[in-house]
Design goal:
By secondary structure, the protein is of the alpha/beta class. It has helices at about 20-35, 45-60, 75-85, 95-100, 105-110, 120-130, 180-190, and strands spanning about 5, 40, 65, 90-95, 115, 145, 150-155. The chain has one domain: Rossmann fold, CATH 3.40.50.2300. It has a 7-stranded mixed β-sheet, sandwiched between helices. Pfam families: B12-binding.
């Protein structure tokens, strides 16, 4: 495969359950639209850990993209270290608001190769193509990357103006039965008490779009 996209565990607070990682699902769709072979793993789901370990042992990929929110920062670095230990030649891409703000610090101190700064749907496709074809990353807008001992920031990428051009999230790569946020959320605030055996399903939206 060309790239594995990973949602790291949220190590700080799972009392309200977990949601499908919508941002990553947009990236899966964007990559597939460019005929890029991608696999998605949510490491909040136990069965995905088995697949993750299998990929590393068999060296089925050498490009890994990891989403990182602040509450995932420690687990993200653990995943980065594990990938680099078993596949040293791999390229690791991080994305998310947390890493965008701390790109230089992260690249200097951890085994991360590239950080996507801002929206990722277009950028991730260009990065994967550049890595596969051994092209110059300087030509990819919207990234910060490590080259030898230097940290290089490319030109900023403009926000996507035509939101209708973005493919719908790739919902069919997630098993909704594994996500329990809505049941725990409604019960915790007494909004809509739900019996233990009652099923409730839902999905999030990115309201800024």
């Amino acid at each position: 495969m060309d790239i594995v996209l990973i949602n790291p565990p949220n190590e700080e607070n799972n009392n309200l359950g977990i949601l499908p990682p919508l941002g990553l699902l947009y990236l899966v769709s964007a990559l597939k639209s460019k005929k890029i072979d991608v696999e998605f793993l949510d490491l909040n789901i136990n069965s995905c850990y088995e697949r993750f370990n299998d990929i590393l042992i068999k060296k089925e990929a050498n490009i890994f993209g990891i989403s990182c929110f602040t509450e995932q920062r420690n687990s993200t670095i653990g995943i980065v270290d594990k990938i680099k230990e078993l596949i040293p030649e791999s390229k690791i891409i991080l994305g998310g608001v947390h890493v965008s703000f701390m790109a230089t610090q992260i690249l200097k101190n951890y085994k991360v190769d590239i950080i996507i700064d801002g929206e990722g749907e277009i950028t991730i496709c260009e990065v994967v193509k550049a890595l596969k074809d051994n092209e110059d990353l300087n030509k990819v807008n919207g990234i910060v990357f490590k080259h030898c001992s230097n940290i290089i920031k490319t030109a900023s990428r403009e926000l996507i103006s035509d939101l209708d051009s973005i493919p719908w999230p790739e919902w069919n790569v997630v098993d909704f039965d594994q996500y329990d946020f809505y049941k725990k959320y409604f019960n915790s605030f007494g909004i809509y008490p739900i019996e233990a055996d009652e099923e409730i399903r839902g999905a999030s939206i990115i309201t800024s779009r």
